[in-house]
TrEMBL record:
Gene Ontology cellular-component annotations: BLOC-1 complex
Highest taxon listed in the record's lineage: Eukaryota
Pfam families the UniProt entry points to: GCN5L1 (PF06320)
Gene field: LOC115886747
Species this protein is from: Sitophilus oryzae
Record's protein name: Biogenesis of lysosome-related organelles complex 1 subunit 1
GO BP term, pick one: endosomal transport
Membership in a protein family: Belongs to the BLOC1S1 family.
C-alpha cells in the first residue's frame, strides 16, 4: 500500500512536472512572441524615423542648393543695379557737363554779340 502510494505520488508529481514544463515552455514562447512583437513595433517606428530623416536630409540639401542659387542670382542683380546706377551717374555727369558747356557757350556768344555791336557802333557813327 505504501509503495502504491509512493508510485501514485511519483506519477502525480511526474504529471505535474510535465504540466509545469508545458506551461514553462508556453510562457517562454509567449514571452518570446511578446518580445518579437515589441521589437517589431519599435522597429517600425525607428524605420519610419529613419525614412523621415533621409527625406529631411534630402530636402535640406535641396534647400541649401536653392539658397546658394538664390544668393548667386541676388549678387548678379546687385551687380547689375550697381552698374546701372553708375551709368545713371555718368549720364548725370554728362548732363551737368553739357549744361556747363552750354552756359559757357552762351556767355561767349553774348560777349561776342556785345563786341560785335560795339564794333559796329564804332565803325558806323
Amino acid at each position: 500500500m505504501l509503495s502504491s502510494m509512493v508510485k501514485e505520488h511519483h506519477a502525480k508529481q511526474s504529471v505535474k512536472k510535465e504540466i509545469q514544463e508545458t506551461k514553462r515552455k508556453e510562457a517562454c514562447a509567449a514571452a518570446s512572441d511578446l518580445t518579437h512583437a515589441l521589437v517589431d513595433h519599435l522597429n517600425v517606428g525607428v524605420a519610419q524615423a529613419y525614412l523621415n530623416q533621409k527625406k529631411l536630409d534630402a530636402e535640406a540639401k535641396q534647400l541649401h542648393s536653392s539658397a546658394l542659387a538664390f544668393s548667386k542670382q541676388t549678387q548678379q542683380w546687385l551687380n547689375l543695379v550697381d552698374s546701372f546706377s553708375g551709368a545713371l551717374k555718368e549720364l548725370g555727369d554728362v548732363e551737368n557737363w553739357a549744361k556747363i558747356i552750354e552756359g559757357d557757350v552762351r556767355t561767349i556768344t553774348t560777349a561776342l554779340e556785345i563786341v560785335y555791336k560795339n564794333y559796329q557802333d564804332q565803325n558806323n557813327p
